[in-house]
Amino acid sequence: MCFALWTVVTPIIILLVSLVVVQWTNYVDVESYYKDKRIILTGASEGIGKDLAIRLSQLGARLVIAARTESKLKDTQNLCQKYSQDVFVVRADVGKEEDNKLLVSEAVKHLGGIDILILNAAYSPPLTMFTDYEDPGETFLGVYKVNLLQGVYLTKFSIDHLRESHGTILAVSSMTGWVGLPMIAPYTASKHALHGYFSSLNMEFQLRQENILVVIMPLPFVHTNRAV
Ligand SMILES: NC(=O)c1ccc[n+]([C@@H]2O[C@H](COP(=O)([O-])OP(=O)(O)OC[C@H]3O[C@@H](n4cnc5c(N)ncnc54)[C@H](OP(=O)(O)O)[C@@H]3O)[C@@H](O)[C@H]2O)c1
Q1: Can 83 be counted among the known catalytic residues?
Q2: Quick one: CA torsion of 73, 61, 103, 52, rounded to 10 degrees?
Q3: Is residue 15 in some structural domain?
Q4: Residue 18 burial by CB count (10 A; 0-12/13-18/19+): exposed, middle or buried?
Q5: Domain total of the chain
Q6: Which residues constitute the domain of residue 170?
Q7: Is ligand 1 within 6 A of the CB of residue 172?
Q8: Residue 4 forms part of a structural domain
Q9: Relative to the CA of 147, which ligand 1 atom is closest?
Q10: Residue with CA at minimum distance from ligand 1 atom 1
Q11: pLDDT digits (tens, 9 = 90+) for 182-225
């Protein structure tokens, strides 16, 4: 009886101790980690991106923030500048290759390089059943351009800078990158594609021993205007 108990308890203890060790050795002090990090953050005119920009400024990061609506970006910039002056606005439609190119060159001009690329901008059309779309191809293409190609273009244009800084690409995703949900098929498909793209990219970085970290961050529901 006693022996049987130990065969159950011992693996649990080993697991718990391992978890503590892994947590401890991978410990990052968030308060100091972001200090002076040079970050491109897309979709910072509202929602999660706006809050993220403010928090990163509080932590001392140097930011280039992007979105299409310049007036809202300037609001974000003003809020960030309570904490740090190093916040620059670039108006960019991340679905367009040339805008992503401009975004990277402006970031390098203002920040002198790139440490972290945060791909947060996203678009989802109004809730619609797939069979009710008149032109689903056009709709899917529009969503893919913003949610997926943003990552493809920004990786392409910033890769040399990320190599130099041993940087990080952080793709903001969603639970819908793993499971489908009704009425948001284009968005769901784009987030699945995002996971596929960045998982492959991550393996290629490892195969080539590139010192670039890829993080896919699947968020649960967050109470923003778009989500509501
Ligand atoms: N909220 C949630 O419940 C939830 C859950 C899971 C994952 N997420 C993910 O979290 C991220 C942020 O979501 P959110 O709820 O904060 O969204 P949001 O409030 O709608 O904000 C979206 C941001 O993306 C920008 N954007 C949209 N299309 C763009 C384009 N073509 N070019 C440049 N910027 C563009 C918007 O700015 P402009 O319109 O000014 O361009 C805005 O700043 C997204 O990646 C989303 O998939 C959100």
Answers
A1: no
A2: -50
A3: no
A4: exposed
A5: 1
A6: 32-219
A7: yes
A8: no
A9: 45
A10: 222
A11: 999 999 999 999 999 999 999 999 999 999 999 999 999 898 88
